[in-house]
Amino acid sequence: MLLQLKQASTRVMLNTGVLYVKMLITMGISLYSTRLVLNALGASDYGIFNLIAGVIAMLAFLNTAMTVSTQRYLSFHQGSNDFSMQKKIFIHSWILHIIIGSIVVAFLLIMVPFLFNGFLNIPAERIPIGKMIYYFMSVSVFFTIISVPFSASLNAHENMLWIAIVNIIDSLFKLLVALSITHFLMTDRLQIYGFLMSCLSFVNFLLYAIYCLKRYKECSLLNYRIIDKVLLKELSLFAGWNLVGALSGLLRHQGFAIVLNLFIGTIANTAYGIANQLSAALNTFSVTMLRAINPQIMKSEGGNNRKRMLRLSMIATKFGFFLLSCLAIPCLFELPALLKLWLKTVPELTLLFCSFTLISIMVDQLTSGLTSAIQASGKIKSYMITVGSIKLLILPSAYILFRLGCQVMWVLVVYVIFEAIAMVFRIYSLNKFAGMSINEYINRVFKKELLPVLISVGTCILIVHIFSFPFRFLVTIPISIFVYATSIYFTGLCSDEKAIFNKILTPILYRIGIYAK
Known about the structure:
globular, 2 domains, 20 helices, mainly alpha
């Protein structure tokens, strides 16, 4: 048992390292590509792209949520060593996602007349291009959905290396697209950009599918000719409720973009798109760790070890928050300089949107790992409906506030409030459906996060108040991270977590000569 735990911990550590290397590469490429695309398209066309095809950038949420559905069953049966069920789950999942992809694309196409006949606030001369971008987006959605069973298999096998390789290839292609559109002078750059971006989803699908079909025996499209209706129904229900949760998040993001477009215009969509790019880059720090630990959460439940599953979900939540906030907090204090360095010319409202978006994702991260535990338990119906509904309430709320003449800042405040309400319900749901102790969560997670955050915020306030010079962020960010990391070690870790951390850290310190053997 101890050997198995050690092997599992080693896999998590190695996969986390691989994913973080990937993250640093893709994040740098992504941020630079955004700058190139913004300069090539201009603020207005960039806003149009984020309004119409911004769902492409949000497909990561859809893909991740649907991947968890298949991964949950694959990991669960890996935990119980049932290979026959793994084969059945894969082929039935493949069939299911082809059906889901077809339905989603059909719905998107049905919505075309409604969206482009006066609903979206787009200049009349750009509507034909907008429709073309929308069709490209629909193709991307389909290939993203049907690639889910393959990416789920990679996650279930904890093969983060190939996932990292595909993500890096995807980022490099996006950089090539960003560089190439600057050379198109006689054609519409927005049209070319939309087409090339849609091609990337097909390339990613091929990279995932070919690898899995050759590497994993359970990944075969010819294993079963007879459909198991009971299994297909079970997978459909679980994937369906996960899809409800994913689509509610997607509708919230894109619906909010539409509300901004109706009341402010494409400039607000540009600011919102840039804010989402920044938050996605920083959020990768926590998502990366959760992705590495998620298979172990599912396998623990499959092995009837719920105590370990709940403990892992709390660890994922806590350290995911620390990884995100260690950068997000100093970035909040240095946003004007960072945006100027990144974008050169900062579009209107970008600073405001970036600030509130960073606060929003930190609030969301306070309970993000608990979602994996709820999914592992299999009891997700009421959770997905309630959390999805809470997050969607921002749309009518934003519309009413704008109609009443409120400034965009107050709309963003309400946006954060709804994130906090969803956070509270996650804690309640895991207590109800999986027996997690709320007191244990508060003591092991929330209270341990509070003091390091206050210390980090105080450090940033002190630096910003004392110093004022160009590139001050080169001082603020590293000092804040050092102080934050130190405070986490002494005040943010429980005794058992500190013991594990010391076991990992001590051999490293021996090697670099800080400790004498």
